[in-house]
Amino acid sequence: MTPEWADRLGLPQGIAVAVGALDAHMGAVGASVAPGILTRIMGTSTCDIMVAGKDEVGGRCIKGICGQVDGSVLPGFIGFEAGQSAFGDIYAWFRKMLAWTLKDIPGGEARQKVLDGMLVELTREAQDMEPSEDGVVALDWMNGRRTPDADQNVKGAVAGLTLGTSAPEIFRALVEATAFGSRRIVEHMKGQGLRIDSVNAIGGISKKAPFVMQTLADVLDMPIRVVRSEQTCALGAAMFAAVAAGVYKDINEATRHMGSDIEAEYRPDEKRALIYEKLYKKYLELAKLAETIN
After folding, report:
1. Main-chain phi, psi angles of 41, to 5 degrees
2. Could you list the residue range(s) of the whole structural domain that residue 30 is in?
3. In this structure, are 93 and 239 located in the same domain?
4. Distance between CA atoms of residues 91 and 69, nearest Å
5. Among 170, 169, 260, 272, which residue's Cα sits nearest to residue 217?
6. How does pLDDT run across 126-174, given as a tens digit for each residue?
C-alpha cells in the first residue's frame, strides 16, 4: 500500500494488496484444482475449470472452449475454462412449465408448498426408474450452447415422447441431458490432448441434488468428489490473499493448510454406465439434427 492510501485509510504503509481474479477460477483453487482434475461449478449453469502443465500443452490452442490463459488459475500452469449455458435452470424451467396450471390459484402458503415440492416429487420418481435405451432423450440447449463451440442460437429438444410418457420420465431425460452435455465437454477437451481423470464439484447442485450427481458420475463413467466448503470461491481468494500477505510462501503451501476436504463421492455404476453409452450416442444424433433445424 502506498503512503498516500495508507494515510487515507489509516493503515500501515507496505500492506500487501492482492489483485482480483475471476470467481470461478478462485473456486477451482479453493477446490484444490490440479492437473487431471476437472473442477465443475454447478448451479443454474456450469463453469468447468482445469489446469495443465505448459509442457503438456506446448503451443497448442484448445479449440471450442471459453478460454485458455497462462496463469489464470494457478501460477505456472495453463488455465482452461468451459461450461454449459444452462444446468439447474433447465430443471427450474420444467417445474415452471408444469406449474402453469397453478397460474390462476392465488399466491399463498398452499401454492408455494406445491411449487417447493414439485422437484422433490419429480426427483423421487425419476430416480426410481432405471435408464433405458428406448427412453426419452433430451438436448440441453434451452439457453444455447456454451461449450463446445459457443452458439447461443441453438435450441433444446426432447425426443422419444409417447402418449404414455410421464412427467418424471421427461424430468429424468432432462437430468440425463445435462449430464450428456457435461460429457461432451469432457470428451471435447480430452480429444485435444487434455488429461481428465476425475471431477471435483462445487456449487448448489453438487450439494443438494444427489440424483443429478450420481447420474453425472454414471454418464461420465468417472468418480465425482463434492468439496465440503460452502464458499469455495471465497476460500480460493483467501488462499491467494494468504500468499500475498506472506503467510504462506506459495499457493501449494496455502492449499495444504487451507484447502477444503471432500464431503461426498459419487462413483459410476457399471450397469448404468453401459446403458448411458448407447443413450449418449442418441444424444449426439439429436444434437446434430437440432443444429440443422436451427
Report:
1. -90, 110
2. 1-84+191-266
3. no
4. 32
5. 272
6. 999 999 999 999 999 999 999 999 999 999 999 999 999 999 999 999 9
Helix (H, G, I), strand (E, B) or coil at 38: strand
Domain count, the chain: 2
- Annotate 258-274 with b (16+ C-beta within 10 A) or e (fewer): bbbeeeeebebbeebbe
Kindly report, residue by residue over 220-236, the tens digit of the pLDDT: 999 999 999 999 999 99
User: Which residues on adjacent β-strands are paired with residue 21?
Assistant: none
* CA dihedral of residues 291, 67, 233, 22 (deg, nearest 10): -120
Residues 199, 60, single domain; the answer is: yes
Residue 106's identity, in one-letter code, is P
Helix H or strand E segment including 189: helix 167-190
Residues 147 and 134 in one domain: yes
Peptide bond into 35 cis (omega under 30): no
Tally Cβ neighbours within 10 Å of residue 105. 11
DSSP 274: H
7 lies in the same domain as 44: yes
Q: Are residues 166 and 247 in the same domain?
A: no
In 3-state terms, what secondary structure has residue 96? helix
